[in-house]
Structure formats: structure tokens, C-alpha cells
From TrEMBL:
Residues 276-325, 349-377 are annotated as: Disordered. This is HEAT repeat-containing protein 6. Residues 277-287, 308-320 have a biased composition (Basic and acidic residues). Signal peptide: none annotated. Residues 390-570 form the DUF4042 domain. InterPro entries: ARM-like, ARM-type_fold, DUF4042, HEAT6. Residues 297-307 have a biased composition (Basic residues). Pfam families: DUF4042 (PF13251), HEAT_2 (PF13646).
Length: 1147
């Protein structure tokens, strides 16, 4: 006989055999045996964790067999079998299959109906365990459980006197609401019933006959139920009353059992842009500025309130270490009332109590907080732990609620959850920061900070109204000042929480929350100083013992340097001496940061320093942040400040943990991007840092090295732009840029570009290579230029769409380089590569290829104008035809492709020579491309596509080889532009169409008198409608539109023939007085700029009008008075009015 199988599995099988044997016994002898057997199974399931759990089939078989043996009239056995279901399913994490679930659910529902009320709690616990993650399989039982007279509704009714029974029913209902991936969710009617039940539970108050722990467990079950509905059911909260009621109960539960705090929350909160009742007097406020929101490499942790299956059995496990930090609680409470007192960083790091000099603060603490040291000990501690769990559950539910409400609706409740500065004599309002500062449980504090972070995420637009840069002295507090006050208070409270916190996990959340605040606050509209405080207080945490705290501290510094860069306040912070505010923090500062040059010694350029203040603008030593980031990236680690690195095994234990180095690289890239003048003195050293990173084995370090390289390249490009505000002598010299790129191309960059296992890295390297300065590229050695071009042409054939898109874009950059665009062979190779990408299946590749095609065709026009006939003759006719056909095809693609395809079409049609126009092979392609352009102008495409199409038609009109005056397509083109200039909603499209209509340089190009006059009439109507718009944002373009229309009208008048004058005269007779003010405004407007961005030449406008008068006067003299209306007289009248007005203004 085989040995008995050990462990729970063997025990279950033996029980199964015994249960089978009991079937044959009469009922009387069976009952005692079943009692003993159930007791044994229950005790085993409550014992220590087994090495190997039994299989689900065995557990289900035992439970089904047990239920079959227990009739419903034997209530003690029913109670025990339900306990067995509850214990076994929870202990062994068993999912019951559908067939067994149907039997067991039917049994439990029948037992609830037939058995006495004393058994109901155990039956409901079994029911809860059965339906957990099994909701979709319970559909046919939902009417019995959640229908009008459903059992769960009866037992969870607020009138239910037995709270334990009510709690068990609510828990079953919450478990039913859990979602299962790829399975149908509860019907809307059931969802609504459950939501109302949970809400009524959360709104109920504890009565004196209910013990604290039971009430806490009841609240927890309801909170988990609401969270499941919001998460799993993707429930969108739309109705104001529903949102207000839920937020009110969440606010109440957030503070449940918080020592020393008793708050009254109304049954519903109501949204309001301003506090509903504000008894504060106006106080002096502070400020903050819109920040560039940034996603960092560090991952946000999910709130710890997330439900796990293992928690099903015991909802209120002790939260060891969470609820007893008495001294922390007291210190936090004192701090909350201390105003803007800033403890010194050195005191905090040295472990001193920053509040020891404020004994009066203790008066704010209520005597009830001394309960932590009472002799009841165990029970009191357990109650506090359960209360902390309720608060965590409420915060986790709040997190889900935030994701279920539109942000614009959520911010109506801002004042209910976010602190505002208290008025003189007013108490501090309770908010999420109250929990972050006062709660004794670090886990709860972390949850509150996570919720606050979610609140702040995406708040940039809402916070952008804040302003307190000017002291307001009004009788009321403007909304902008209220929001600014709230931003200032958030800074104050978060910095207080920062210096008081001892838990590393909570510290990490505080710093992440600060980073979110910094990324969204509008500092340019607020008084300076807020960022300085954050900057100075975060410095010591860069060397915290916990890696997560160090990473999030770098994230915060990255947010500061990326927020609306460049900010004057941040520039001042970056210019501070390296030692400022850092070494004062004592032991917190790593020794490796003490030497200014140590990090540079690790880099080969340190001895030469070829960029020794090339522009005379660099600081004598690198800014603290730059030095810190480079040190973290390139210097060996110091074990003394990296004791939690076990979670981050790096490829080499020589360096700091990988997440820290990645964050330092990202901060460095942001610093270079926002404050390039600060970094340019160390341009070559930073290039060496990028090189080193790209040479490492870790692809993520390589990737961020490539991103740093791209930012360095882009910084130089921006400096050398023609319109750059940087003076030429303050720019990085071209010779240094050549040295920089020579180092890159002789280093790891070519290898990185060919690193096919890592397409994201290749993409980033491609982007970096496209950031080379054109002047520097032309000075590179020939073989290095060829290497760059060869690599990009090769990558254009990559199988990976990311790499292919980046290569296509880079080729579009290179084709504009003066030294390459005149090389016909390079132009041809690039054209073929781009055309290949233009037919790719990836929309992103096609969009990038279309942009590059637009650039390539721009170079055709530039070469035509600078090199003349020689370039046109060298370029293959076949390639030109391919460009025309491919661009026409691309103009039918999606809008992102189409916008550049029409630009390319305009350029190619402009480039065509008489020999091409006469060529039958070109004729069909030309007709098709022109029809595509005309159709796009009047289409429903995005506005960018349409204004590019108008611009392209203007380009077509510049080609003298095209038969503009007689071709049928010309009539269609003029008709489309005339229609758009009158009626398009977008003024920029109207501007481009008016511009296109003013391009033909000869009267013959406009065709017949009828067509010419139609264009003239359309422009007159457009001028009258130049202020008609439904969209206020378009109004700012109305002045430019009028300028362009007036320019077009005068252009037409200078070309007009005698046959055109009657119709022109008739239009002026009808509308002359209406358009006269617009023409006068055109003649005197000095505020707007022209296309090139320079102020208009008003004298040229007057001369243009005079030329039109001279031209028309000559024609009218020839007609010898036959013209019924003399157009020249009208224009002379306009000019006289303008001259008189000008003289009057000057006088």
C-alpha cells in the first residue's frame, strides 16, 4: 500500500474519502462525525502556511461533498460548512469553477432563506469568498442577491440592527463588484443599487452599541466596493449630486479616527470656483509659475489601498509600525500651526528638533492624543490600526474617484481638499495636507500624498489663473489671488512635511508631490521665492540613505529646471556657488561632492578645458546641480549613502544604482535644454559624459546618453539660428562644435546607430545625429560626412518603424545643409530614400517622410534660384516625375502626411520647366496633382492642411511655364481660393488664400475679365467680413488678414485692364465707403509685422497705392471719360484722407 500523501493536499484527499464513506451512514451517526471532520479541516486551514497548497479541484470537491451531506435543517453544521468554505477558499486562494460555483451559491442562497438569523453571518462570509473575482459567473443569481427584494439588499439595509450581519452583506456585495479582465461587468441597474448601498453605509454614523473595530470593518467593505465600481466598472461620475455625496463621505472617512481631530462634513459637497463661505480677511499672498510638465524615469507606486485576494479573510490586519509614532504626530501637529517658519536643513539632518524653540506650539494639541500611552495597550492599538485602514481605504477610493471625474469638474472641489492660507485668527482648514502632516501612520500619510499628487497632475491650466505678483488692495479677494494663496500654502505645508518625515516611503511621496506641484504652478505670475525654498530644502535629501528618496529628489530638481525655462529665479539658483546651501547640511553631504574639480578629473578634457569661458559668460566653477549630476553619472559610488541599493542591481557595482544615474542624466538633459548658457562652458565635458554613457552595456544608460547628446546639439543649433538673441561672441565657437562632433563620430555614436537589438536607442541616436550644426558639418572631415550620410541612408531601410521614421526625419534635416543640398547625387539618393519611406505601412514613418519630402522640395526651389539652369538640367526627369506622383498620392493620406505632401506638390509644380510642362508623360501627373491641391483647399481637412494647400497654389502661380491664364484648372484654383478667402472659419487659411491670389505677376495670368472681377469681388467681400468670427481666438489674426487682402486688392488694381474697370467701379460704388476705413488702417498700421517678422514699410504701402492710381489714371485717360466711375478718383480720395490724418497726428 502506498504511503499516505503528506501535507494539506493529502489531508484533503483523506477527508474527501471520509466524506464519501459518510454518505452510506444514517443521518444520526453522521452528524457527530461531520462536526469532528469540519473542526479538523478548519483548524488545519488556520494553521501555519503549508509548503504545498492543495489543488483547486480537491478543495472544490471537499466543499461540494460537505454541502451535499449537510441538510439545511441542521443549522450548526450549516454554520460550520460555511466557515469551512470561507477558510479554505481564502487560505488556499482558490477560484471555484462554474459548475461547483453554481451548486455552492445555490446552497448558500437557500441557507440564507431557510436558516435562522444566527447563522447568516457565516453564510454571508462563505458567499463573499465564493463570489470573489467570480462576478461574471454569478449573473443568474444577481436577481436573488441584488434584485428588488435581494438578500444582500435586505441584510445591508441601514435599518438592519445586527452590524456584523450588515458588514458581511456589504462585503459580499463589494466582492461581487470586483471586475475580471475580459469578462462582462455588472449591469448598470445593479451597479447603481450597489453604489447607493455603499454610499448609505459610508454616510451612517456609529451608534453606541457598535464597537469601533466592527464599524471600521463595515466602512472598509463599503470603500472597497465603491473602489471596485470605479475601477472595474469604469464608472464615470457625471451627476453633481452623486459626485458631491461621494466626495463628502470620502472626506469624512479620510479623517476617521484621526487623533485630536473631529470634523463635521455635510452630506454633500458642492462645486464652487470660490469658497462657499469665506470669512477670511484679505491677506498678503504668495506665488508660483507654469511649469513644463515632465514624465520621469521613476515609476509612480500605486496606492497601498489596492485590494489583494489574500486580504479577503481578515480585512483589518495590524499595520505594524503605522499607528504608534507619537512623537512624529506631535511634531507634525505643531508644525501645521507655525506659519512660514522654515527649520534649518542642518538641524534636520543632524537630528535636531527644529521646533524645540517653540514651546507655545504644544498648546494646540488636544489632550486626547495622550491615549497612545494608556494601559489598555493592545485593544487601543488594534482600534487605531483599523481606523488607519479606513483612512487608507478612503484615500485609495479617492484616488479612483479622481480618475473617474473630469478634471474641470474635479477642480470645482479644490477648496474642499487642498489647503488655503488661514486668515488672521482663523483655524487651519482640514485638507489632504492635514493627513500628510498629522496622521500617525506613515502608510496613510503616503496615501494622502498620492491623492494630492493625482489632484495636482494636469492642473496646469486650472492653476494658470493664479496671480499674486501685485499686492491687491480690494474689498474682495479675486479668484486668482485665492488660487495663488492655495499654491503658496501647498508649498509651505509640503516643505514642513518634508523636514518632519522619517519614513522613507512617505518621504518619496512628499518629494514626488512637490515635483508635481512645481510642474504645474505658474511661477512667472507669482512672487519669487517659492522655488528657492524648495531648492534649498531638497538639497540634503540628494544624499539620503534611501535610493528612492534620492531619485525622487533629482526628479524634483528636474521639475524646477524644466518649469517655464528659463526662469530668472532658477537662473539665480543655478549661479549660486557650488557650496551654497549644501555643505551646511553636515554629514548629509557626500564627501565626493566637496571637491569642485574631482568630477572633471575623470574626464579627458579636464586638463585642456578648450572652452575656457569662450564667451566670457561661464561661471568660474560649474553650477552645483551640473556638478552633482555629472558626479552621480561618472564617479564611483560611495557605499555610505547607498545602503538600500539591493533593490537595484546594476550591471556594475562600481557606479551608483541605475535609477539614480538615469534620473541624473534626465536632469542634466533638462538643464542643458532650459539653461544652455549655464552648461556651455562645459560643453566638451558634457559631450564626454554622453560618450561614456553610450559606451556602457546598459541600454537605458546608453539611451539617456544619446538624449543628452541630442540636447547638447539642439542647444548649439538654437544659439546659431539667425534670429537667436545670443550675441555671436557668446555662442559656442564653430571650431569647438566640430571638435565635439568629431569626438562623437570617432566614439560610440556610429556603433549605437547600428545597435539593431535596441531600436529605441537607435532612434534616439538618429535624433542626436540630426542635431548637428550645419556649419560644423561642412567642416568635418570628408569621411565623417560620408559616414553620417551612409548611416542615415542605411537606417532608412530599417524594419523597425521608430528607427525608419527617425532616419527619414534626419535626412529631411540634412537635405537643408548648404554643403549637401547642392550635391545632385545626394539629393537623388535622399529623394529615393524618402519616397521609399513615403509608402511605408506605418503612419508615423509616412508623416516624417512627408515632412522630409517638403524640405527636399524646398531645396529644389533654393537650388533653382541660386544655381540656375545647371541644377535643373542635372536632376533626372524620371525622379521629378516620381516626386510629383508620390506627393499626389500622399496628399490623399491622413492629415499628418497630407499637410506636408501638399507643400511638396506646390514646390515641385513651381520647379517644373517648360520642357516638363510640354512633356506628355508629365501632363497627366500635373493635372492630377493640381486637382488634388484644389480639392484640398476646399476640403474638410484640418486647417494646417488647408493653409499649406493655399500656400502651395501660391507657389504654383509663381511658375511662368504654366499656362495660368487659359488652363481649366486655373479657373478652378482661383474659384477655390476666392471661396475660402470669404468664408473659411480659420483666418490663417484666409490669409494664405489672399496671399496666393496676389501672386500672379501679369494680368493675363488672371484670365478673362469675368474671372478677374470675380476674384476682385471676393476680396472686397472678404475685407468686409474680416472681423466676422465665431471663435474669439481667430480675432487676433484679423489685422494680418486685412493687410493681406488690401495688398491683394492694390495688386489687382495695378494690373487691371480697361475692360475690368466698369465692374471694379461698380463694386466701389456699392462698397467703397464700407472698405475705405480698412484701406486707411492698412496705410497707417505700424503695429503688425510682415511675413519675415519685420515691421512693415509704410512708405512702400503709400507708393504701392500711388502706383495703382498712376496705372488707373493712364487707362482712364485712354478711355476718354467712357468709364462711368473713375476708380483713380476713389483711390486719390483715400490717399488724401490718409495724408491729412498723418499730418494732423504729427502736428
Amino acid at each position: 500500500m502506498a504511503a499516505a500523501e503528506p501535507g494539506p493536499a493529502g489531508s484533503l484527499r483523506r477527508c474527501l474519502a471520509r466524506l464519501g464513506a459518510l454518505r452510506a451512514r444514517p443521518d444520526g451517526g453522521r452528524r457527530t462525525e461531520l462536526h469532528l471532520l469540519f473542526d479538523q479541516l478548519i483548524s488545519e486551514s488556520c494553521g501555519p502556511e503549508p509548503a504545498a497548497a492543495p489543488g483547486p479541484q480537491d478543495v472544490c470537491a471537499v466543499l461540494v461533498q460537505a454541502c451535499q451531506l449537510v441538510p439545511l435543517d441542521q443549522e450548526h453544521l450549516v454554520s460550520k460548512v460555511c466557515q469551512l468554505i470561507h477558510h479554505l477558499l481564502n487560505r488556499y486562494q482558490v477560484m471555484v469553477d462554474e459548475q461547483n460555483l453554481n451548486f455552492l451559491l445555490s446552497y448558500c442562497i437557500s441557507a440564507l432563506r431557510q436558516c435562522s438569523s444566527w447563522t447568516h453571518v457565516e453564510i454571508l462570509q462563505a458567499l463573499a469568498a465564493l463570489v470573489y473575482n467570480n462576478g461574471p459567473k454569478c449573473q443568474k443569481y444577481l436577481p436573488d442577491l441584488l434584485g428588488k427584494a435581494g438578500l444582500l439588499l435586505q441584510f445591508s439595509d441601514p435599518a438592519q440592527p445586527d452590524v456584523e450581519l450588515r458588514r458581511a452583506a456589504v462585503r459580499s456585495m463589494a466582492n461581487l463588484c470586483l471586475s475580471v479582465p475580459a469578462q462582462p461587468y455588472l449591469d448598470e441597474s445593479y451597479r447603481s443599487v450597489c453604489f447607493q448601498t455603499f454610499l448609505s453605509v459610508l454616510q451612517s454614523s456609529k451608534t453606541s452599541d457598535v464597537d469601533d473595530i466592527t464599524f471600521c470593518m463595515l466602512l472598509q467593505s463599503a470603500l472597497k466596493g465603491v473602489q471596485s465600481l470605479l475601477n472595474g466598472g469604469k464608472m464615470k461620475l457625471m451627476q453633481t449630486d452623486q459626485i458631491g455625496a461621494l466626495l463628502a463621505v470620502l472626506k469624512k472617512c479620510m479623517f476617521h479616527g484621526l487623533p485630536g481631530l473631529s470634523i463635521e462634513v455635510p452630506t454633500a459637497l458642492y462645486p464652487a470656483p470660490l469658497p462657499q463661505y469665506d470669512k477670511r480677511s484679505p491677506v498678503k499672498q504668495e506665488q508660483s509659475e507654469p511649469a513644463t510638465s515632465r514624465q520621469t524615469g521613476s515609476r509612480r507606486k500605486k496606492c497601498k489601498g489596492k485590494q489583494k485576494k489574500g486580504e479577503l479573510g481578515e480585512e483589518g490586519r495590524e499595520d505594524s509600525g503605522d499607528a504608534g509614532d507619537e512623537s512624529m504626530l506631535r511634531a507634525d501637529m505643531v508644525k501645521l500651526h507655525l506659519g512660514d517658519v522654515q527649520p534649518r536643513a542642518s538641524d534636520v539632518c543632524a537630528g535636531k528638533d527644529p521646533l524645540s524653540s517653540h514651546p507655545t506650539g504644544w498648546k494646540r494639541i488636544s489632550s486626547s492624543e495622550s491615549e497612545y500611552s494608556d494601559t489598555e495597550g493592545g485593544i487601543q492599538s488594534k482600534v487605531r490600526s483599523y481606523q488607519a485602514n479606513v483612512r487608507q481605504g478612503a484615500l485609495a477610493c479617492f484616488l479612483s474617484t479622481i480618475k473617474s471625474i473630469e478634471k474641470r469638474v474635479l477642480y470645482g472641489y479644490w477648496s474642499a481638499f487642498v489647503p488655503d492660507a488661514p486668515g488672521i485668527g482663523s483655524p487651519q482648514s482640514v485638507s489632504l495636507m492635514t493627513i500628510a502632516l498629522k496622521d500617525p501612520s506613515p502608510k496613510t500619510r503616503a496615501c494622502a500624498l498620492q491623492v494630492l499628487s493625482a489632484f495636482l497632475e494636469g492642473s496646469k491650466q486650472f492653476l494658470s489663473v493664479a496671480e499674486d505678483a501685485n499686492d491687491h488692495k480690494r474689498a474682495f479677494t479675486p479668484f486668482s489671488v485665492t488660487i495663488a494663496s492655495s499654491i503658496r500654502e501647498l508649498h509651505r505645508c509640503l516643505l514642513l512635511a518634508l523636514v518632519a518625515e522619517s519614513s522613507s516611503q512617505t518621504l518619496t511621496q512628499i518629494v514626488k508631490c512637490l515635483a508635481n506641484l512645481v510642474s504645474n504652478a505658474p511661477y512667472s505670475r507669482l512672487k519669487p521665492g517659492l522655488l528657492t525654498r524648495v531648492w534649498n530644502q531638497i538639497k540634503p535629501y540628494i544624499s539620503h540613505k534611501d535610493v528612492n528618496v534620492r531619485v525622487s529628489s533629482l526628479t524634483l530638481l528636474g521639475a524646477i529646471v524644466s518649469v517655464q525655462a528659463p526662469l530668472p529665479e532658477v537662473q539665480l539658483l543655478l549661479q549660486q556657488p557650488s557650496s551654497s546651501g549644501l555643505n551646511s547640511s553636515g554629514s548629509a553631504t557626500p564627501g565626493r561632492f566637496s571637491s569642485c574639480e574631482q568630477w572633471r578629473k575623470a574626464l579627458p578634457w579636464a586638463g585642456e578645458n578648450p572652452l575656457e569661458n569662450p564667451a566670457g559668460c561661464g561661471p568660474p566653477e560649474p553650477c552645483w546641480l551640473l556638478r552633482l549630476c555629472v558626479s552621480i553619472i561618472v564617479l564611483p559610488r560611495e557605499d555610505s549613502c547607498s545602503d538600500s541599493d539591493a533593490n537595484f542591481p546594476s550591471l556594475s557595482s562600481v557606479y551608483e544604482p541605475c535609477p539614480l544615474r538615469l534620473e541624473a542624466l534626465q536632469v542634466l538633459a533638462l538643464l542643458v535644454k532650459g539653461y544652455f548658457p549655464m552648461a556651455q562652458s562645459y560643453f566638451l565635458e558634457l559631450g564626454e559624459v554622453a560618450c561614456r554613457c553610450m559606451e556602457e552595456m546598459d541600454p537605458s544608460i546608453q539611451l539617456h546618453g544619446a538624449k543628452l547628446l541630442e540636447e547638447l546639439g539642439t542647444g548649439v543649433l538654437q544659439q546659431h539660428k539667425p534670429d537667436s538673441p545670443t550675441a555671436p561672441e557668446q555662442r559656442v565657437p564653430v571650431s569647438v562644435v566640430v571638435t565635439f562632433w568629431t569626438m562623437m563620430l570617432n566614439g560610440p555614436l556610429p556603433g549605437t546607430l547600428q545597435s539593431s537589438p535596441h531600436p529605441t536607442l537607435q532612434t534616439s541616436a538618429c535624433d542626436a545625429l540630426s542635431s548637428i550644426l550645419p556649419e560644423a558639418f561642412s567642416l568635418l572631415q570628408g569621411d565623417q560626412q560620408i559616414l553620417c550620410v551612409t548611416l542615415l541612408l542605411g537606417l532608412n531601410h530599417s524594419e523597425n518603424p521608430l528607427v525608419k521614421a527617425a532616419a527619414a526625419r534626419a535626412l529631411g534635416v540634412y537635405i537643408l545643409f548648404p554643403c549637401l543640398r547642392q550635391d545632385v547625387m545626394f539629393v537623388a539618393d535622399t529623394a529615393n530614400a524618402i519616397l521609399n519611406s513615403l509608402h511605408d505601412k506605418s503612419p508615423n514613418v509616412r508623416a516624417k517622410a512627408a515632412w522630409s519630402l517638403g524640405n527636399l522640395t524646398d531645396t529644389l526651389i533654393i537650388n533653382m534660384e541660386t544655381m540656375g539652369q545647371s541644377f535643373q538640367e542635372e536632376l533626372s526627369d524620371l525622379l521629378l516625375l516620381k516626386l510629383l506622383r508620390s506627393a499626389t498620392e500622399a496628399s490623399k493620406d491622413r492629415d499628418k502626411v497630407k499637410s506636408n505632401a501638399v507643400r511638396a506638390l506646390g514646390n515641385v509644380l513651381h520647379f517644373l520647366q517648360p520642357c516638363h510642362v510640354a512633356n506628355p508623360r508629365f501632363r497627366e501627373a500635373m493635372e492630377e496633382s493640381l486637382q488634388a491641391l484644389i480639392a484640398t483647399v476646399g476640403s474638410e481637412a484640418t486647417m494646417k492642411v488647408r493653409w499649406n494647400a493655399c500656400y502651395a497654389l501660391g507657389n504654383v502661380f509663381k511658375n511662368p511655364a504654366l499656362p495660368l491664364g487659359e488652363a481649366p484648372w486655373a479657373t478652378q484654383a482661383f474659384g477655390a481660393l476666392s471661396s475660402v478667402v470669404k468664408s473659411c472659419k480659420n483666418f490663417k487659411v484666409r490669409i494664405k488664400s489672399a496671399m496666393a491670389l496676389s501672386i500672379p505677376s501679369r494680368r493675363e495670368c488672371y484670365g478673362s475679365t469675368e474671372q478677374f472681377c470675380q476674384i476682385w469681388s471676393a476680396l472686397v467681400v472678404a475685407l468686409q467680413r474680416s472681423e466676422d468670427t465665431e471663435d474669439f481666438l481667430e480675432f487676433k489674426y484679423s489685422s494680418s488678414l486685412r493687410t493681406q487682402i488690401c495688398r491683394a486688392l492694390l495688386h489687382l488694381l495695378r494690373l487691371a485692364r480697361s475692360t475690368d474697370l466698369p465692374l471694379i467701379g461698380g463694386t466701389l460704388r456699392d462698397h467703397g465707403e464700407a472698405i475705405k476705413p480698412f484701406v486707411l488702417q492698412y496705410l497707417r498700421s505700424s503695429g503688425e509685422e510682415n511675413e519675415a517678422g519685420t515691421p512693415p514699410d509704410l512708405g512702400e504701402r503709400e507708393r504701392g497705392l500711388q502706383r495703382a492710381i498712376d496705372h488707373l489714371s493712364g487707362i482712364e485717360r485712354e478711355l476718354q471719360g467712357k468709364a462711368r466711375v473713375r476708380v483713380s478718383l476713389y483711390l486719390e480720395d483715400v490717399l488724401t484722407d490718409h495724408t491729412n490724418a498723418t499730418e494732423l497726428a504729427e502736428a
